[in-house]
Design a protein that fits this description.
This protein is an all-alpha fold. 78% of the residues lie in helices and 0% in strands.
């Protein structure tokens, strides 16, 4: 990635300064970004975006003293990290924020034959199969299910509800086919 940054900078003197700044600030910018985005890959992307912005305006930035330059770069990095965090948050909300029309209790499925239930579960998307298997069939608690699947407790509840809703639809459709 260093080559990309360097290609934007015009003079050898500025390239040397940039390389020095890159080496000095890279780790602390990464840690700062990581504390905001909570994901190593996203933190790396944030730092790359920061250095691209710095490289684009390096002639202007390099005129500042070291302390002001550092403050400027830290602010760019934090803003990039906050933007990434908000973007990720919105993305998650879109994925997991469909309304829960109804809450279906697991006892609803007691009246179905094992084979019908098994066939319907096989048709579910993998993330719903996993949640039904862990939460309903193995009767593992919310916290353990969340930890196992590396999701939040709230997401466990949402997925259980959605999985049961889909399962109900599949089973009802199977009843209509008979």
């Amino acid at each position: 990635m260093m080559i990309v940054y360097m290609s934007v900078i015009e003079t050898d003197n500025d390239r040397n300064k940039f390389k020095e700044i890159y080496e000095d600030f890279k780790q602390s910018l990464y840690l700062d970004a990581l504390s905001i985005v909570k994901n190593p890959e996203d933190a790396e992307d944030v730092v790359e975006d920061t250095f691209l912005k710095v490289a684009d305006s390096f002639t202007e930035i390099s005129q500042k003293n070291r302390q002001k330059m550092r403050a400027y770069i830290v602010i760019i990095n934090r803003n990039n990290a906050i933007d990434r965090y908000n973007k990720n948050k919105k993305s998650l909300e879109k994925k997991d924020d469909t309304p829960l029309e109804e809450i279906i209790d697991s006892s609803y499925f007691d009246s179905y034959e094992y084979d019908d239930l098994y066939d319907a579960i096989k048709k579910l998307p993998q993330k719903y199969k996993d949640i039904i298997y862990l939460y309903d069939l193995l009767d593992i608690g919310t916290k353990a299910t969340a930890k196992t699947l590396k999701i939040s407790d709230d997401t466990v509840y949402k997925r259980v509800s959605r999985a049961r809703m889909l399962l109900k639809k599949l089973l009802e459709k199977g009843d209509q086919d008979e």
